[in-house]
Specification:
Blueprint: H1 2-10, H2 21-24, H3 26-42, E1 50-54, H4 60-68, E2 73-77, H5 81-90, E3 95-97, E4 108-113, E5 122-127, E6 130-137, E7 140-145, E8 158-161, H6 163-174, E9 178-184, E10 196-199, E11 202-204, E12 214-216, H7 221-227, E13 230-235, H8 236-242, H9 245-255, H10 260-271, E14 280-285
Parallel strand pairs: 1-2, 1-4, 2-3, 4-9
Antiparallel strand pairs: 5-6, 5-8, 6-7, 9-14, 10-11, 10-12, 13-14
Helix pairs in contact: 3-4, 9-10
Length: about 300
């Protein structure tokens, strides 16, 4: 999954097979910019604050966020040369890094929308003889025994473990950074298989044509919450409406009546339980001494 997704994003295919919330409406990024500004104030408004984004796509979210809060310095965690070029066109004064570890020390607020779901998972399946780890070799699924500690689930159950996601939030927490993670997945850990591939806007075989499809897996927010101090997770519809999604969208529609219908449809897509509203969750990684952050009351 890791190698295939690295090849996929290196080609700059972001947005061709799926559409993310920042691409739907500028209001999404503006709300996150306002959120970051309030959080910065709750931190005591430290000088030299860095606003970063992991998995920034085409740079749309950050460009919209900076319209509300022009942070002191902007940092992108991005390895794709093609996507870096698109980001530079929208946020030319940004700094680019291959990993979180490359961002300089200092006060940091990090945004990550649909970033963790693209990180590779380990997949385990319960057989009669115990847990087996599933892996891919020569274009097919194979299994081998494992001593990885997993719950006593029924035979046939599947568990997924996203170790890179856990490593990322632990590293962010260890440096005292604050992170906002928006992604799809359950609020509590549960058995289930969620690895999927999207190619040309439709579901595809995850093993077919490596590097030509976007591979994702649901984010285990329960595991993240157990790993580091945090607030949430809350459902995306609760978070966005708490930040003023309806009000800001209405004001935008009043200024641009020709966009009013599209804005209403977008707000519905972002908040409806049967769309993105309940499936997507929001988790804030933050020091335990901070007050309740916006959107998490």
């Amino acid at each position: 999954m890791a190698a295939a997704n690295a090849a996929y994003y290196a080609k700059g295919r972001f947005g061709q097979d799926f559409v993310t919330a920042p691409e739907l409406t500028q209001v999404f990024g503006e709300l996150l910019g306002a959120w970051a500004k309030v959080v910065w104030q709750l931190m005591g408004a430290p000088e030299g604050i860095m606003l970063a984004e992991a998995g920034p796509g085409r740079g749309v979210l950050m460009a919209d966020a900076l319209r509300v809060w022009p942070a002191h310095s902007v940092h992108f965690i991005e390895t794709s040369p093609a996507l870096r070029a698109e980001q530079a066109a929208r946020v030319p004064h940004a700094h680019w890094h291959d990993s979180l570890a490359d961002i300089p020390n200092g006060p940091l607020i990090l945004l990550a929308n649909e970033f963790l779901d693209a990180l590779p998972v380990r997949q385990f399946i319960r057989r009669d003889t115990g847990w087996m780890e599933r892996y891919v070799a020569d274009g097919a699924y194979l299994e081998h025994p494992t001593d990885y500690a997993l719950p006593d689930d029924p035979i046939g159950s599947v568990r997924e473990v996203n170790e890179p996601a856990l490593d990322f939030v632990r590293a962010l927490s260890a440096r005292g950074g604050i992170g906002l993670f928006i992604d799809y997945g359950p609020a509590e850990s549960a058995a289930g298989e969620s690895v999927q591939a999207i190619r040309d806007g439709a579901y595809a075989d995850p093993l077919a044509a490596p590097g030509e499809a976007d591979l994702t897996a649901h984010v285990d927010f329960g595991a993240l919450k157990r790993a580091v101090p945090s607030q949430g997770p809350v459902k995306q519809n609760h978070f966005l409406t708490s930040l003023g999604l309806y009000q800001r969208s209405d004001r935008l529609a009043q200024r641009h009546p020709e966009k009013a219908m599209d804005l209403r449809l977008t707000v519905q897509r972002l908040t409806a339980p049967e769309a993105m509203g309940s499936l997507f969750k929001v988790l804030a990684i933050c020091p335990p001494d901070l007050p309740t952050l916006p959107g998490f009351a």
